[in-house]
Amino acid sequence: MTWNDKRPMAPHLQIYRLPLTAWLSILHRGTGAVLYVGLLLVVAVLYAAASGEVAWRAMQTLLSSWLGQVVVFGFVFSLYYHLCNGLRHLLWDTGKGLSLDTLRWSGWLVLGGSVSLTLLTYLLSFLVRVHD
Amino acid sequence: MTDFRSPLGRAKGLGSAQEGSHHFWLQRLTAVFLIPLTLWLGIAIAMLPNIQLATLQAWVAFPVNAALLTAFLFIGLHHANLGLQVILQDYIAHYPTRLALLILLQFTSLLAALVALIAVIKLLLSGV
């Protein structure tokens, strides 16, 4: 289908290139929704642990499958992203950090921070854990 | 029936329910609580020497860990519940569906919190 209307068109979502702040805002909600499901998963893991050795081993097998590892990684990143960007939100609630320049660099800082914290967590658990 | 109230009286009768900022405030308060709790939990889990059940039991059996873990789960679920509520209210335009999902959300969050509490208590007692 071709667009024949000659009148000016508002830059809707498929035309307008979203700025970084918009992507980060969407990601905040997205990770928030992911974290709700993630928390239910944490409760399920605890429940399995409380149910005894058999359930715990089944949960371990489930989480160490490749899909399980992807889910856990997604949860850890979502947690750190939502935490870092949440700090930005709390700063905004005080009326500070709302200029365009500040928003841009604090946005990149949040992205870099959450990726670094995720990698650091995996590195730490790798170094501490006893491998047998 | 004729309404004899003055415009001001009518406005007062239909006015604010005095709890407009309640949701906003709780979302922020739980967010602030979750900052140290999340960092603590992340480091604590990453520092576990292995992921055997006995290790987890011994960790939860330490009262401070059990208390903070429960705090993280309760406050986290409350925060997530408030957040998902707003998402449903924003995106589900069909009112009956929205209402049904909101009820389901409240039920799920409450149930998850209770299951979490019972699981922590059971782990706490089995790890002694």
Number of strands of chain A: 0
Mean pLDDT of chain B: 90
Distance between the termini of chain B: 71 Å
Biggest β-sheet strands, sense, barrel of chain B: none
Total number of beta strands of chain B: 0
Give me the strand/helix succession of chain B: HHHHH
Q: Any idea what the shape of chain A is? A: elongated
- Oligomeric state of shown chains: heterodimer
> What is the succession of H and E elements of chain A?
HHHH
| Mean pLDDT rating of chain A | 91
Question: How many H/I helices of chain A?
Answer: 4
Beta fraction of chain A: under 5%
**Which structural class should the secondary elements of chain B be placed in?**
mainly alpha
Give me the secondary-structure category of chain A. Answer: mainly alpha
* Ends apart, CA distance between termini of chain A: 61 Å
CA-atom Rg of chain B in angstroms: 21 Å
> What are the segments of chain B in which pLDDT stays under 50 over at least 5 consecutive residues?
none
Strand content of chain B: under 5%
Cα radius of gyration of chain A in angstroms: 21 Å
Give structural notes.
The complex is a heterodimer of chains A (132) and B (128). Chain A is built from four helices and no strands. With 132 residues, chain A is mostly helical. The longest helix of chain A is centred in the first third of the chain and has 32 residues. By secondary structure, chain B is mainly α. Chain B contains five helices and no strands. In chain B, α2 packs across α4 and α4 runs antiparallel to α5. Chains A and B meet through α1, α2, α3 and α4 of A and α2, α3, α4 and α5 of B.
